[in-house]
Amino acid sequence: MEKFDREMARGDLYALFAKIADSGDFEKLLEDLCTYTEVEQLAQRLLCAKLLLKGYTYNRIIEITDISSATLSRVSRCLRHGSGGYREVLSKYSADGVAEGELLEDGADGEGEGRDD
Fold first, then answer.
1. Is residue 116 assigned to a domain?
2. Half-sphere exposure of 26 (CA within 13 A, CB side)
3. Could you list the pLDDT tens digit for every one of the 117 residues in the chain?
4. Distance between CA atoms of 73 and 76, rounded to whole angstroms?
5. Which phi-psi region, left, alpha or beta, contains residue 85 (left: φ > 0; alpha: ψ -120 to 50)?
6. CA–CA gap between residue 100 and residue 90 (Å, rounded)
7. For residues 71-107, b (16+ Cβ closer than 10 Å) or e, as one string?
8. 64 is in which domain, residue-wise?
9. 3-state SS of the chain?
10. CATH number, domain at 88?
């Protein structure tokens, strides 16, 4: 048997994800692939990215999501210097039509991504 090729396996995973059109199927797969906590953390990071793009401050996001400041900082860094995945995927596929600079009705204070702590 050949040795495990991590890069090929990741590519296969990404290709499989891209083919899943039904959210119920995707949910079942994530439940099998990840622990409950891992799925919750993914969802929390995605929500934080949405809130950062909508102009929420770090303090407000931490208050809403209970995310650690270190993880929030990582999400913010990915938004600014990452591959563009959060921005691209949220703008294309988010149910609430997230657009940069757009404000939510509840709590966005227009202070942007800056830390206020």
1. no
2. 12
3. 688 899 999 999 999 999 999 999 999 999 999 999 999 999 999 999 999 999 999 999 999 999 999 999 999 999 999 999 999 999 988 877 565 444 343 444 434 444 343
4. 5
5. alpha
6. 10
7. ebeebbebbeeeeeebbeebeeeeeeebeeeeeeeee
8. 34-93
9. CCCCCHHHHHHHHHHHHHHCCCHHHHHHHHHHHCCHHHHHHHHHHHHHHHHHHCCCCHHHHHHHHCCCHHHHHHHHHHHHHCCCHHHHHHHHHCCCCCCCCCCCCCCCCCCCCCCCC
10. 1.10.1270.10
**Can you give the pTM of this predicted structure?**
0.76
Q: Find where tokens 């929390």 sit.
A: 44
